Amino acid sequence: MIELHYWTTPNGHKVSIFLEEAGLDYRIVPVHIGRGEQFTPDFLKIAPNNRIPAIIDHDPIGGGEPIALFESGAILTYLAEKTGRFLSPDIRVRYETLQWLFWQMAGLGPMAGQNHHFSQYAPEKIAYAIDRYRNETNRLYGVLDKQLAGRDFIAGDYSIADMASYPWIVPHERQGQKLEDFPNLKRWFHAIAARPAVQRAYAKAEAINAAPTVDDEARKVLFGQTARR
């Protein structure tokens, strides 16, 4: 049994997609980040960066005591190694997959996240910041579109690189992007969206958080954090 400590964000969706694709036995433990549940002592024991997702694997690779992990990229890599799926043993394919996973973690996710923040949530609409992150998101969409030319998935076969990137493309309209401008990415996006496991993962998200909202209190929790919290 795997405990998935989760909220309905792109990073949360990455892991639920993998678990559905692999058919692993798991239980969702909701962590309502707008209410500050990510600061509870029990959650901080497994996720000291107070961010979702995190997992506890009660049947870890090699047996022994449960393993707790945070950071979605580390979790996806661990789950791929645990199951022997979605990360090729061939060294060239494996590291192509991992470099695109790291690309998402270091580029697409953070830049799209700042795009969301300044265009959707910031109390002051700063044109420079909005344009800066919208343009960088656009550049990254272009990088992904070129990578997908002539191939079905990011690293050839369907992999954790696709699972990591897809949830950050789902809110493309909020990011000020048009999929029509990126034909390879658009084809890939619809192929991922049609996968039954992906649909199951998103259906669970809707059941947990049917009407996502960020009100004033949630903004204080989500966007006002310092080392003191």
From TrEMBL:
Top-rank lineage group of the source organism: Bacteria
Family matches, as PROSITE patterns: GST_CTER, GST_NTER
InterPro entries: Glutathione-S-Trfase_C-like (IPR010987), Glutathione-S-Trfase_C_sf (IPR036282), Glutathione_S-Trfase (IPR040079), Glutathione_S-Trfase_N (IPR004045), GST_C (IPR004046), Thioredoxin-like_sf (IPR036249)
Domain GST C-terminal: 90-213
SUPFAM superfamilies assigned to the protein according to its UniProt record, in alphabetical order: GST C-terminal domain-like (SSF47616), Thioredoxin-like (SSF52833)
Domain GST N-terminal: 1-87
The family this protein is said to belong to: Belongs to the GST superfamily.
Official protein name in the record: Thiol:disulfide oxidoreductase
Organism of this sequence: Solimonas terrae
Upper lineage: Bacteria, Pseudomonadati, Pseudomonadota, Gammaproteobacteria, Nevskiales
